[in-house]
Amino acid sequence: MKKEIHPKYDIKTKATCACGAVFEVGSTMPEIAMEICSNCHPFYTGNEKIMDTAGRVERFNKRRAATVTAKAKK
Questions:
Q1: 27, 37, 42, 69: which could form a disulfide with 17 (CB 3.0–4.6 Å)?
Q2: Is 31 among the annotated ligand-binding positions?
Q3: 63 is in an annotated binding site
Q4: Which pTM was predicted?
């Protein structure tokens, strides 16, 4: 291996989630900021968390209701 071309690997990098959880992980980055982790992810917690961006959930529910009524009319 060539010397001085590889990044420094730190085994105690601090990874911080938006929920406030802090983990120590191995990485070449000095610090990691993430939006979602295993403490707050719906798959791991079992809690449903809907992040609504510009009314997407309402728009989806409206479309779904329209298709159900259209099928019922047939």
A1: 37
A2: no
A3: no
A4: 0.52
